[in-house]
Amino acid sequence: MIELELISRARSYGDKIALHTEARDYTYAEILDRSASLAASFLKNTDDLAEARIAFLAPAGFAYITTQWAIWRAGGVAMPLCLSATEPELEYALTNSESIQVITTRENAAKVTDLCARLNLRLTLIEDVDDTPEKTLPEISSNRRGMILYTSGTTSKPKGVVTTHANIQAQIESLVEAWEWQAMDRIPLFLPLHHIHGIINIASCALWSGASIEPFPHFDMETILGRVSEGAYTVFMAVPTIYVKLIQALESKSEEERETIIHEFSKLRLMISGSAALPASVHEKWTELTGQKLLERYGMTEIGMALSNPFHGERRPGAVGQPLPKVEARLKTEEGDLVTEEGEAGEIQVRGPGVFHEYWNKPGVTKDSFDDGWFITGDMAVIETGYYRIMGRLSVDIIKSGGYKLSALEIEASLLLHPAIDECAVIGVNDDTWGEMVAVATVLVEGKELTIDSLREWCRDQLSTYKIPKRLLVMDSLPRNAMGKVTKPAIRDFF
Question: Which of 141, 172, 207 is a domain's end point?
Answer without folding.
Answer: 141
